[in-house]
Amino acid sequence: MEFITFLIDLFLHIDEHLATIINQYGTWTYALLFLVIFLETGFVVTPFLPGDSLLFAAGTFASLGSLNLLPLLGLLMLAAVLGDTVNYWIGHALGDRAYQIKWVRKDYLDRTHAFFEKHGGKTIFLARFVPIVRTFAPFVAGIGRMSYGYFISYNIFGGIFWVALFTLAGYFFGNIPFVRRNFEFVIIAIILISVMPILYEWLKARVKNRQAKALV
């Protein structure tokens, strides 16, 4: 329960936490941001780490001059691409054995499989914008032995586009007075918009299940 409370506070006040980190660690902040994005995309045990919201907050601080935009973009893009690559090869090495590992959430794997069935290889790109699915998509691609050449093209394009979109959104809009006064609500809106595809698929699945039961 304490961990959940911590995560909620981290997401809702990510600007305050990032400001503290920048003040305390200075240049090392880049390394920490790189690590968080790498872990969030690279390991199926860390899908709870901030992704979209952290990129937006980092862009906001770049617009204030607290962070340098170009190195920030380059490092975070590299972290996103490397994270997905590591995740792919972990899934590739484990294969179907991944389903027997206790710490791998089977419901997340199933949800990601459903995403793949609907969108095919484009899932690697589209998943960048869907929390949890973003973390599991390269892992499932590796399990399914997706061609690495096919995977890496979507991985690079998706990683660059995802980081650029949210970081530059923070850079250009994060310091608008209205946004600054309501930063936590903006973060909530980003999270809600991000999880809408998951919610939509879940509701659609429930409707199909009810219809199937009605026909029995």
Name the features.
216 residues, mainly alpha, 11 helices, globular
Description:
- It contains eleven helices and no strands.
- It is globular.
- Helix 2 packs across helix 4 (52-63) and helix 3 (28-42) runs parallel beside helix 5.
- The protein starts with a helix and ends with a helix.
- It has 216 residues and is an all-alpha fold.
- It has one domain.
- The mean pLDDT is 83.
- It is 78% helix and 0% strand.
**Rg (C-alpha, Å):** 18 Å
Largest sheet: none
Residues in β-strands, percent:
under 5%
Structural class, from secondary structure content? mainly alpha
N-to-C SSE series? HHHHHHHHHHH
Total separate domains: 1
The rounded distance between the terminal residues' Cα atoms is 41 Å
Unreliable residue stretches: none
Helix content: over 70%
Query: Which whole number gives the mean pLDDT?
Result: 83
Compute the number of strand runs: 0
Quick one: overall form?
A: globular
Number of helices: 11
Give a short overview:
With 216 residues, the chain is mainly α. The protein contains eleven helices and no strands.
